[in-house]
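Rotation project, supervised by the postdoc (A.L.). Task for the rotation student: set up a whole-complex structure prediction and record inputs and outputs verbatim in this book. Inputs entered:
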Amino acid sequence: MHHVVSSSFDEHQVLHDLKHYLPSQAPLKDFIHHNSLHAFDDQPFFEALRHASAIFGYKTSLSLEEYRSLYHQGRISDDILLHVLTREAGEQAGEWRTRLLSTPYDDPAPPRIGALRARWKQHAAVDLDAVVHPLLFRVVCSYLDQGIAIWRFPVAEQGFLEALRTLERSSMSSLFQTRRARSLLMNSACHLPDLLGILVGDRVWYERYLFDQQFAHQGWSGLISAIEDHPETLLIPRPLSLHDLVVFECLLEIDALESALGHSWEPLSAHLRTPPEGLFAPVLPDEKSEALRLWQLSFEWSYFDQVLAGLRQLPPLPPSQPTGVSGPRFQALFCIDDRECSFRRYLEQLAPACETFGTPGFFGIETYYQPDGGKFYTKVCPAPVTPRHLIYETGAGTRNDRDPHFTRHAHTAHGGWLISQTLGYWSALKLFWQVFMPGAGPTTASALRHMDHTAQLVVKSDEPPTIQDGLQVGFTVAEMADRVEKVLRSIGLVRDFAPLVYVVGHGASSVNNPHYAAYDCGACSGRAGSVNARAFAIMANTPAVRHMLHARGLVIPEETWFVGGLRDTTRDDVVFYDTHTLPGGLDTLHAEINLLFEQALDLNAKERSRRFEMVNTARSAGKVHQQVRLRSVSIFEPRPELNHATNALCIIGRRSLSRGLFLDRRSFLNSYDYQQDPDGIYLAGILQAAAPVCGGINLEYYFSRVDNEKLGAGSKLPHNVMGLIGVANGIDGDLRPGLPVQMVEVHDPVRLLMIIEHQPEVVLAILAQHPATAAWFALEWILLVVAEPETRSLYCYQSGQLVPYHPVTRHLETIPDLAPLLASRQENFPVYLLHNPSL
Amino acid sequence: MTAFLPVFVLIPAIGFCISLILPRHHERLIAGLTFAVVTLQLLAVVILGSVWLYQGHPVTDIKEIVLYRTAGYEFFIDLYVDRITMVYLVVGTILAFLVIRYSHHYLHRERGYKRFFYTILFFFTGYNLTICAGNLETLFIGWEILGVSSFLLIAFYRNRYLPVKHAVKVFSIYRIGDVGILLAMWMSHHLWHENITFQQLLNYERVHEHLAQHSWTGTFISLMLLLAAAAKSAQLPFSSWLPRAMEGPTPSSAIFYGSLSVHIGVFLMLRTFPFWEHQHIMRVATGLLGLTTALVTTGIARVQTSAKSQIAYASIAQIGLMFIEIALGWRHIALFHFAGNAFLRTYQLLISPSIVSYRIREQFYEGPQPGYTAAFLPPRLRLTLYILSLKEWNLDSLMYRLLWNPLKWAGNRLNFLTHDRVLTIVIPAYLLGVASRWYEAWLPGWLRQGLPVLFAAIGLMLVLKSFTARHKVRMSWLLILMNHYWIALAISFNEYFEMEHTLLYLSGITLAGLTGYLCLAWLNRRESLDLARFHGHIYEYAPAAMIFLLACLGITGFPITPSCIGEDLILSHIHEDQLLLAGVVALGLIVDGLAAIRIYARIFMGPHIKTYHPSAYRSA
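Outputs recorded:
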């Protein structure tokens, strides 16, 4: 972007730039992970860290002390440190080692942002933030409110500024203290340059001033910017632009200054003797930033090197399952989500004849969904996609059970009088139950609620298709065949179909959790993946679809049946859909497999529980599982599950590439068979989805972890829900975008390492064709390693080249039995080889 | 039964003391102890409460310990139980029991885990002492504990800006309530000529006889009690503090501001009802206050768009109704209302984070719910009311304008009083004052009349100066100390009494003053300090912060030193017709507390000035 101080002020450009830098988090119900520093993603990773830190005061890496302590704990390996230093610093590796380990460095300088506007306080002794923010937030939140206030903002449909004008015109009170601000609103067009002329004076500083002003409350500004871009995210529509927010804030500032200083105050530039440093002036690397970079590389590669060594050391598995392995044979498709990593491992361990696959959890079905009785459509596919289809549900039971404690009458004087003396006593009992015997209730956000398993899904379209609100209801046969084919081919499931193929989406359940949407499937726009999984199975079981696939060379045997399902990642429960339609003979097989799922779920819950300090992992899997289930319905549990915490890897390749490695639930797993895709056409599609989705999740965790106060949401314990759209601390605070500390505290801030199984030259060719995707790797926001399928040689992507990589780690330990290890400690484990994983 | 009464205060108090010495990182031990304490308390309440009921719920009063006795004055701890106490005891114990159990998991891994639990126990001790108090003096001690523990829990996230700002704000309003009680205590000494117990207030003839002679005095006492109750229970014009107190972890907001702490004003009204039952002015004033509060805050509650502030204002409106109920004499309804409201608001606050998924689902399936529109009003009035409610009727800025601004204005007028001048003028003047006390008999009568007010005013001036100082931390601290010395001197002119009283008053204050001074001097050698901004030094100097906090409490007459009794004793030497002197001294004591807590907040709390670790935005 172009940043020079110029005497012209291009309002549109400045607002556009502002929106670019503000956090872009949608309202709570549509929470989607994204790179917190997305505004800097046109720079190389470490350069971006430096700039973001100097400009906005973010802490963008661990501190030197934290790195040093990781080193002393052995979590940064000395070998890797030396390796990294030799590679990066050559001859000076020794000196750098001393610096890294013991040189003290100064604390960071105060950030550039805010330096200009701070002059009000210095020169005029007016604390604008303290006066303006509370009223600004309150008015904006009342305007946007989605259903907390009983008395909603009147005349809101006119647009924000017009609504304010009506409010001022038709009432005897005013939001302003002084006549000047009010008359500017009522009698002028409120052109931004005019208002800034009053406040700032010299045009040169307008842009800077607006950055300072909006970044003093980046939570609200960012949310409003997101709402401006996606107004449909609000169920109760509220047109509001960043421009209108800025205008109102400028008016409130004029009001505050006028009220504190009288009529004779000068604009800010009159006080400006020494201009502040340019906001976007380049930030040059210094010794400290270099030290932090080297530490970060050492930290990342201490883990990645083990993973790569593991890939090299794994005994090669036969590409397809050997015959003669005992147990039922089935195949199961899951989301690429890192939370499926361990579950798939247990399933494979319990049923050695099964095969598991990973593909983004919307299963290629981009659609809107309308539950039975729902007044709105819900998007259930990756956020950037705009679906043209609608799937709806019929015949569902009621799911809007009530909790009288949320009744609006409790908040009025007369209603409250009655309710406090009746329901109030019931509250004490209710609280007693919830504290000592937690159970699900109307307050729980349950994964199962998304779709009723007894209801029907309308997936197939009429002939000709019906159009409803511009969306096509259901999919035609050709459309269904396209989607089924694309998914099956991309994961390499094109032959050897087992009698039962499971398609399992995922969702989460929690209570008392405003961030509930962040726990569901990211590939389904923060919803559970049940609709997509079930719809996929319905499509793949449709004879006409199979017929068409057959014609395209993808033969699914008639005996094969697809079963949709949903796994609750919090409770470790699974439900299967439409099992009553199973063809005869498959019921018993399904029942047998269902038992295996149950066992795998128990074991998975046990493995997850090792991160929960208050659960004793050493107990039997069944008992541990029961305790884990309880977390999802306990109102006092701020960590129902740990979501994507500790994610570090994304493996795109055949299962045989990593089956047998213990990756500690840290890997996204996307199935892909290079043999089915010699030109990398499907791979390109996978990368286009996986890089932003997995990269976004990884980077949001990274930044929320290293600076939980500015880039994360802080502790969730004092959070207060504002207007159903965001959380703030207390009642006067700014919104807190990002992830709360309870979600990220166990996360190791490392970038994502993507491992692709294919020929290096094919990968390079794909990257050359898709520059937007390639930028993630070229600028090192995601690290990339290519594993050559035949030889398992490894190539690391560096400055546009694939350079051979030889792991430093020589030997990995083999673990015969996981159970004692899991109960031993909470921290991340190194990579282990699993003993004889095919049995 | 009588013998068991102290148990209700001792269990939490002992628990609090033990909790202080537990290891900081041992969550299980900390939560376990706290839970054991409330469980024990619950058992005690159930068993002893049943016995008490079985015995026909007798009103019981015991004089526990006499802390100080002199001619015509006795400061004693007195415990008392009646229906009101029992209801508050049962509700408080049940809620503490549930909320502490809740917090055991909820606070897991939070920085300040131990601090949270010992502050809760400290609060619980204060609560039980307040509701079991048999006289104003005992009640005052519990009342002070409630104030300090509130401050600590609001500022639980002590390195963020807003929690600290709001904690100081709430403390300042509590301070008004404190002085209300102090003045009520002062006047009742003169009314009864002894430290009266609540049980004696039940004696209608006796109360009536005294009030008939001194109706003005009675009204004054009642109004001071109403002031204290209004401040503590967030009635007008103080209401805006309650939502702003919701800065700590949700369970602490639930138990403090949803239920127990905020209903203490109601308790005070119920407890002193026999005293003002026959004062019509007082009953009308209480009823009107409750009515206005209920009307205004129910409007404010309707426009709130944050889950917690909505509950806070809804709760204030209910408390307003309780004030009406008490004014009408419906004390049992008020008690019943209190218990229901406390349970309801606690639970609502605890499940408030669920409101997002709940309401979104409700809207998804039923469409946006029709809102309230105040349709019965003409449109112009309707919108006016909306704006006023949105701006909380300017209550927050009103508090600022009425309380802080005049003090700041006055303090800034004292800029001529440089620190050098303080040293060169005020100290010699003080010595002159002490000397003239020696030769008092030689002074003309009009001068002797005027001197106490003059001296108290000098003290007030000094402490105002301290309150507005932006630099010179140690000097500001000493100015607070000097205020007490001037007050002592002023009163010593007022009446002949023994030097011992003055010593009692100044002993603890001086000790606290020296401790605080040393603490600041020690820190000053390590860091640069001023009062123009927050420093957040507690991040690195937690032990020093603790010592300094104790010094702040000591210097403001908190019941950890004998000065607490001394303060009450000294006040009793102001005559009932010396309203000006009492006013100046009281104002001095208010500002004194504010100035001390301001120094503590500015030096030790707020965003840390060092940048090596993440810190939140000021607006966060």
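Student's summary: The CA atoms of residues 470 and 532 of chain B lie 5 Å apart.
Supervisor addendum: The two ends of chain B are 51 Å apart (CA to CA).
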